[in-house]
Specification:
It is built from ten helices and 13 strands. By secondary structure, the protein is of the alpha+beta class. Strand 2 (100-105) and strand 3 (111-117) form a beta hairpin. It is globular. The relative contact order is 0.16.
Length: 325
């Protein structure tokens, strides 16, 4: 009898342990049914996210899917020469060459990316082709260009006279010291939740102004610049890519949402993690935005000055992100 009681007690403990293996996921899944889902939603980084969101909303409002929406959305700043930190007209590297990075991710965790891509105006669309038409996740440099040309993308000069003039002025002293919230907001990251309740995200950039030739930041790296988990939510990052890569920042935000944190709280905790890993953040800016399956959204950054654009059925707005320092 004594042995049997011990066996039953151990069995009960084992059952309790096993049932608790996934309490976070169970809690998150259970909470989804408690509130009405706010959908569709599109959220993107910085004020250039406003016109980008308008393009995405045209897709979402007609019950289009989130993947098509984010691609259409970020193509707007990619093709705008007046937005000097994304795509055509972007600031060049220190050799005067405009090099582009982008990635895209869908509801099924399919993803595609390009890095160090030159001469192609819309790297996000090339990234989608990588996702859909190759067995790979990322193509870089000359290989990415060859692939883009094989898919019918036009080869263009992306260095506008304005950006060339600024680069030549910079060359007089060649001091690499990006100014936070100006040269560091070198990204548009966009997240969308469509009418079906599915998520997708996109991220595209011309990278840090006057970077070393060949430098790649976080924007094309799945898990760093962008991450989508259709069971939980999505996140994207902006700011100094090196700091985001070290923390696998966007994946971290999504995992923090999985633990039950709101999008804003998850972004805040990720920012605090980055701050804790750096001795000096006086010149370091990083911001995150996040969107969960309920259509709740939020953002957070290290320093004041980061904002993000939101478009829902209630309208559109530009929100000043909360900040730590």
């Amino acid at each position: 009898m004594s042995s049997r009681r011990k066996f039953l007690k151990l069995s009960a403990l084992g059952t309790t342990f096993l049932s608790g293996l996934y309490p976070i996921e169970q809690a998150f899944a259970g909470s989804l049914g408690k509130k009405a889902v706010n959908k569709p939603v599109v959220i993107s980084t910085w004020d250039h996210g406003m016109p980008a969101n308008d393009a995405a909303w045209k897709v979402l409002s007609q019950k289009g899917n989130a993947l098509d929406a984010v691609e259409a959305g970020v193509r707007v700043p990619e093709g705008d020469p007046h937005i000097r930190t994304v795509g055509y007209g972007g600031y060049p590297d220190r050799e005067g060459k405009v090099t582009l990075d982008a990635c895209i991710m869908d509801k099924d965790s399919n993803c595609g990316a390009v890095a160090f891509l030159q001469h192609i105006k819309h790297p996000i669309s090339v990234a989608r082709k990588v996702m859909e038409d190759t067995p790979h996740v990322m193509l870089v440099g000359e290989g990415a260009l060859q692939f883009a040309l094989s898919k019918g993308f036009a080869k263009e000069n992306l260095l506008t006279p304005e950006s060339e003039k600024d680069w030549k002025e910079w060359m007089k002293e060649s001091k690499y010291k990006p100014v936070i919230n100006i040269e560091n907001h070198d990204t548009i990251g966009m997240l969308a939740l469509d009418a079906n309740g599915d998520l997708a995200g996109a991220c595209t950039t011309s990278g840090a102004s006057y970077k070393m030739h060949g430098r790649v930041g976080d924007s094309p790296i799945i898990g760093a610049g962008l991450f989508v988990d259709n069971e939980v939510g999505a996140a994207t990052a902006t700011g100094l890519g090196e700091a985001v890569i070290r923390m696998v920042g966007s994946h971290l935000v999504v995992e923090l949402m999985r633990q039950g944190n709101s999008p804003e709280k998850a972004c805040k905790l990720a920012v605090e993690r980055i701050i804790a890993k750096h001795k000096d953040v006086s010149d370091l800016q990083v911001g995150f935005i996040a969107l969960n399956k309920r259509g709740e959204y939020g953002g957070y950054c290290i320093h004041k000055g980061f904002n993000y654009a939101v478009h829902t059925n209630s309208g559109k707005q530009l929100i000043d992100g909360k900040y730590k320092l």
